UniProtKB/TrEMBL annotation, chain A:
This is Peptide/nickel transport system ATP-binding protein. It holds the Pfam family oligo_HPY. Gene3D superfamilies: P-loop containing nucleotide triphosphate hydrolases. Keywords: ATP-binding, Nucleotide-binding, Transport. One of its GO terms (cellular component) is plasma membrane.
From TrEMBL, chain B:
It comes from Citreimonas salinaria. This is Peptide/nickel transport system ATP-binding protein/peptide/nickel transport system ATP-binding protein. It comes from the Bacteria. It is a peripheral membrane protein. It is found in: Cell inner membrane. GO terms for cellular component: plasma membrane. Keywords: ATP-binding, Cell membrane, Membrane, Nucleotide-binding, Transport. GO terms for biological process: peptide transport; transmembrane transport. Belongs to the ABC transporter superfamily. Transmembrane segments: none annotated. InterPro entries: AAA+_ATPase, ABC_Ni/Peptide_Import, ABC_transporter-like_ATP-bd, ABC_transporter-like_CS, Oligopep_ABC_C, P-loop_NTPase. Gene3D superfamilies: P-loop containing nucleotide triphosphate hydrolases.
Length: 319, 336
């Protein structure tokens, strides 16, 4: 049994302009996440990669109970949590925590660092004294004098560390990190990732990293899943996907993260067009209108999930 | 002494920044945001400006188009463009240059366009100088929307910005910047707000249009990959100074300044073998209210020695025509 097991998760959102949809006899909602399955084991890291609108943040919000799934199952330590009550959630949230995207914006500007990092302890009825605050700051490599500082006095990297300390306050079993390095300088990104790796080694926390940055995924995750329009187009061990991408979208994302070398110009797969809206999904394969290798079949047949030895993809004509 | 061995030195540059210093007055003291910047923007080339937050790259970009904040003050130096000194140009002077010879693409395409007027109206408005008819202006607007590869361009004139996606809006901004056929186009992190696959599209588009129109581009970015993709020359900034400049090839293949080397080492795109311990640059930026006396990077530099504390390094000429603000590149150090 894995720590977290998600099976055929579907999440629908109501769309805007319902009156117009009614008049045109169109559906009132659309599927933001469309049949996603994955597992995470203790001590393991899974990366969810995708561009805006791919549904990756929706999955995160659903996992910590901020959004109800439309269908599918989410099991945490073997227990079904997709329809958990508020009371059950208050227990569950001690075991799973979230690092929010904006490092400074996710911290209340009116609280000191000391009360920010111990706030989760107080909410869950534990003592959040100065000793605890010092211990938590020590865990993320911040000196004790930061206890009396306010968020606006922190740099992006320091604010991110406070976010990590908050997320770790209750010794969670699952940590969800939504774009943990967004908005941070390159020299600080490494610092935050090293910290996450270090914490994971010590506590065996399972981590779900949500990001659009493939370079990040390569160095911190064991497995990765690439999302497009609410589906996993490819999933498997990170090293093997980097070695040989099977789905053309994965390949395009890999080459959109160029190595800084002026001589490597030109040998890139640049995709035409933009991500279509999940309200009007393309026929056949979701990716076919932008796929450089699309064949006539791709606009007709919907590719299913093709498993192959520990990984899977959704492409009729894999690379 | 070494000569100016850059490939572009043969031709008169479009813009020459000479010893530019810019201060910001704040309640907590004067921040010396730019200190003694020397740079040239060659004609018809793309100059990349790279650095991390707080290094002054955006301040430099904004000073090239006269859009510095109210509390900014040019403390010294000049920005020469033809007969003009952009650093000392008044409001009237800027009205003649901005939007004709110098144009800019901003970071966030969501806020760069006016949300309450149509794309078409905004594209007509910026042609207020031209004595041509409204329908000719409209035709020009359509022509430039086609240049930036917006499908069904004519119909987009009646669209409001919110009806377009982020990538499309940035294309509209590029079309508007090029419409006036500027000599100098400043792009301040134009792809930061976009998704990865769109980012590469916009970079490819900028490259294509720059070659077609032959304008000079100053491309500000913290993303080394896109800079390598797009730029001919690159300047690396740290703590308000240019620490290294040269051709993109010399800079990315053979970085000389320890900061450039550290910055390249940190880029996870360069690390081919998966690792769980990524390189970082320990330490923090110096306080620019009191910039350190010697080398600004000294406190974080793995090679620093006594001289770095005593003496502020000038821009030494490097082996491949680049310029390096580091005593390690001093020919006299080799001899010693």
């Amino acid at each position: 049994m894995s720590l977290l097991e998600v099976a055929d998760l579907r999440i629908r959102y109501a769309r805007q302009g319902r009156l117009r949809a009614t008049l045109r006899r169109e559906p009132h909602d659309f599927e933001a996440v469309s049949g996603v399955s994955f597992q995470i084991d203790a001590g393991q890291t899974l990366g969810l990669v995708g561009e805006s609108g791919s549904g990756k943040s929706t999955i995160a919000r659903t996992l910590i109970g901020l959004k109800k799934p439309t269908s599918g199952s989410i099991r945490f330590e073997g227990q079904e949590i997709s329809a958990a009550s508020n009371r059950e959630w208050s227990r569950l949230r001690r075991q799973m925590s979230m690092m929010w995207q904006d490092p400074v914006g996710s911290l209340s500007p009116r609280l000191t660092v000391g009360s920010l990092v111990t706030e989760p302890l107080r909410i869950h009825g534990r003592k959040g004294d100065r000793a605890e605050a010092e211990r938590l700051l020590g865990l993320v490599g911040l000196p004790a004098e930061f206890i009396s500082r306010y968020p606006h006095q922190l740099s992006g990297g320091q604010a991110r560390r406070v976010g990590v300390a908050r997320a770790l306050a209750l010794d969670p079993k699952l940590l969800i990190a939504d774009e943990p390095t967004a908005g941070l300088d390159m020299s600080v990104q490494g610092e935050v990732l090293n910290l996450l790796n270090d914490v994971q080694k010590r506590t065996r926390v399972a981590v779900l990293v949500i990001t659009h940055n493939l370079n990040l995924v390569r160095h911190v995750t064991d497995r990765m899943a690439i999302m497009y329009l609410g589906r996993f187009v490819e999933e498997g061990p990170t090293a093997r996907i980097f070695e040989h991408a099977r789905h053309p979208y994965t390949e395009a994302l890999l080459s959109a993260n160029p190595e800084p070398d002026p001589d490597a110009r030109g040998d890139r797969v640049t995709l035409a067009g933009e991500v279509p809206s999940p309200v009007n999904r393309p026929s056949g394969c979701d990716f076919h209108p932008r796929c450089p290798w699309a064949r006539p079949d791709c606009s007709v047949r919907v590719p299913e999930r093709y498993p192959e030895g520990g990984r899977s993809h959704r492409c009729l004509f894999p690379l | 002494m070494a000569t100016h061995a850059t490939a572009t030195a043969t031709e008169e540059p479009l813009v020459a920044v000479e010893g530019l210093s810019v201060d910001f007055d704040t309640p907590r003291g004067t921040i010396q945001a730019l200190r003694d910047i020397d740079l040239t923007v060659p004609k018809g080339k793309v100059l990349g400006i790279v650095g991390e937050s707080g290094c002054g790259k955006s301040t430099l970009a904004y000073s090239l188009i006269g859009l510095l904040a109210e509390n900014a003050r040019v403390a010294g130096g000049a920005i020469r463009m033809g007969e003009h000194d952009l650093a000392r140009l008044g409001a009237a002077g800027w009205r003649d240059l901005r939007g004709t010879r110098v144009a800019m693409i901003f970071q966030d395409p969501m806020t760069a366009l006016n949300p309450v007027t149509t794309i078409g109206q905004q594209m007509l408005d910026i042609q207020y100088r031209d004595r041509i008819s409204r329908s000719e202006k409209r035709a020009r607007a359509v022509e430039f929307l086609e240049q930036v590869q917006i499908p069904d361009a004519a119909s987009k004139l009646d669209a409001y910005p919110h009806q377009l996606s982020g990538g499309m809006r940035q294309r509209v901004c590029i079309a508007m910047a090029l419409l006036t056929q500027p000599d100098l186009l400043i792009a301040d992190e134009p792809t930061t707000a976009l998704d990865a696959t769109l980012e590469m599209q916009i970079v490819a588009l900028l490259r294509e249009l720059q070659q077609k129109f032959g304008c000079s581009v100053v491309f500000v970015s913290h993303h080394l990959g896109t800079v390598a993709e797009l730029c001919d020359d690159v300047a690396v900034m740290y703590a308000g100074e240019v620490v290294e400049r040269g051709s993109a090839r010399s800079l990315f293949h053979d970085p000389q300044h320890p900061y450039t080397q550290a910055l390249l080492d940190c880029d996870p795109a360069r690390i081919k073998i998966a690792t769980r311990t990524l390189p970082t640059i320990p330490g923090t930026l110096p306080d620019l209210r009191q910039p350190p006396r010697g080398c600004a990077f000294r406190a974080r530099c793995p090679h620093a020695w006594g001289r770095c504390e005593r003496e502020h390094p000038p821009l030494y000429p490097g082996a491949a025509g680049q310029r390096v603000r580091c005593h390690l590149s001093d020919p006299a150090e080799d001899a010693a």
